[in-house]
Amino acid sequence: MYRHFNTPFRAAYYHDFQTITTTRIYHEKRRKVKEANTTTPEFLQDAIVADLADLFEGQTLQSSAGDKRPIRVYPQDLPIIEGMDETEDRTEEIPEPYIIVRTSEGNVQDANSPQEIDLILVVCVYDKNPNRQGYRDVLHIIQEIYGRYAKNPMVRIKTDSGGAVGGPWSIVYPIKWVTQQDDTHPYYFGAMSLKFEAPAVRQEVPYT
Fold first, then answer.
1. Stretch (H or E) spanning 172
2. Rounded (to 5) percent helix, strand, coil in the chain
3. 193 neighbors 177 (Cβ within 8 angstroms)
């Protein structure tokens, strides 16, 4: 009944099965490596920028233009304001209040360890009131950010962002923050140090 398995057909069948299985495993490993590649620092930065923009949506603070404006979030640094034509109205380009999300450094202990990515958040608010209480708005922003990642330590790129699907990254303690001690009235500054852990990238695909 099973004699046909001892024929050349059996060898051909086994070869085809092995080829299909090997190809499937190869592509599965490639998929995992591709997913790991979306946990890179720049994708984390994009995810945090979008996350904080959502966190502070609807909140406004005083600006140097004399009105209240939403808290803007910028990746890495403030955009350069081009042109110096004093006849133009440049009030819309005034950045504060703002948060800058800067990549700082990373660390991978060994081949089997996850990558740790350090971010620095710079907070700036404007308050010309002579009572010098602008630092309270800085502390409010810091506390909001701390509460966000204390309640939910995971971060992903949002599916509707139009970019790659990236993450997850998870917060790593400690979370550190400082307020500026120098007198820069009416501008007040603070900063936070956040560390995130990305899944480890391991060798899974044969190489030559």
1. strand 169-179
2. 35, 30, 40
3. yes
CB 202, CB 151: distance < 8 Å: no
Q: Count the residues in the chain.
A: 208
Q: How far apart are the C-alpha atoms of 135 and 139, rounded to whole Å?
A: 6
Instruction: Report helix angle 41-55 to 135-151, nearest 10.
Output: 110
Q: How many CB atoms lie within 10 A of CB 198?
A: 23
pLDDT per residue as tens digits for the range 87-138: 555 566 788 999 999 999 999 988 888 899 999 999 999 999 999 999 999 9
Three-class SS state of 129: coil
Q: Which helix (H) or strand (E) holds 131?
A: none
In whole angstroms, what is the distance from residue 199 CA to residue 195 CA?
Answer: 13
| Residue entry with tokens 């070869």 | 15
Q: How far apart are CA 85 and CA 61, in angstroms?
A: 27
Q: Cα–Cα distance between 144 and 149 in angstroms, integer?
A: 9
Say what the pTM is: 0.76
What is the rounded CA–CA span in Å between residue 98 and residue 70? 8
Which residues does 193 contact at the CB level (< 8 Å), separation at least 6? Answer: 104, 118, 119, 120, 121, 175, 176, 177
